[in-house]
Design brief:
Shape: elongated
Helix content: 55-70%
CATH topology: Multidrug-efflux Transporter Regulator, Chain: A, Domain 2
Distance between the termini: 25 Å
Number of strands: 3
Strand content: 5-15%
Oligomer: single chain
Strand order of the largest sheet: 1-3-2
Order of helices and strands: EHHEEHH
């Protein structure tokens, strides 16, 4: 059985609505996409579609930009967080495999 994405992950919101919700211009939103800070999906006709998580990320980006943080630095921070998350996931997976192999039950 496959897991369904959370409503916050579903890419269903148009760039116009995102612009209204965030206060950013459509040009700014596209720029952040060019800088690889957000990753909208494309609909059949090429229209960008965003999720609620994308909106939250755009607000965080806008706040950091107001503080003077460069987009390059924001991107580097994102990369670092993703690497840390990947390492944590791998560590938990390995721990689960070891526990499974040796019949260790997790305390409840």
């Amino acid at each position: 059985m496959s897991e369904e994405a959370s409503y916050k992950d579903k890419k269903v919101i148009t760039i116009g609505v995102v612009s209204e919700l965030t206060g950013l211009t459509e040009r700014q939103i596209r720029y952040y996409e060019e800088r690889k800070l957000i990753f909208p999906e494309r609909a059949d006709k090429g229209n960008r579609k965003y999720s609620f998580n994308d909106i939250e990320r755009l607000i965080e980006i806008a706040n950091k930009r107001e503080e003077g943080v460069r987009t390059y630095d924001i991107r580097q921070e994102m990369i670092k967080k993703n690497k840390e998350l990947d390492q944590k996931v791998r560590k938990n997976m390995l721990k689960g495999q070891i526990n499974s192999r040796f019949g260790i039950q997790k305390d409840r």
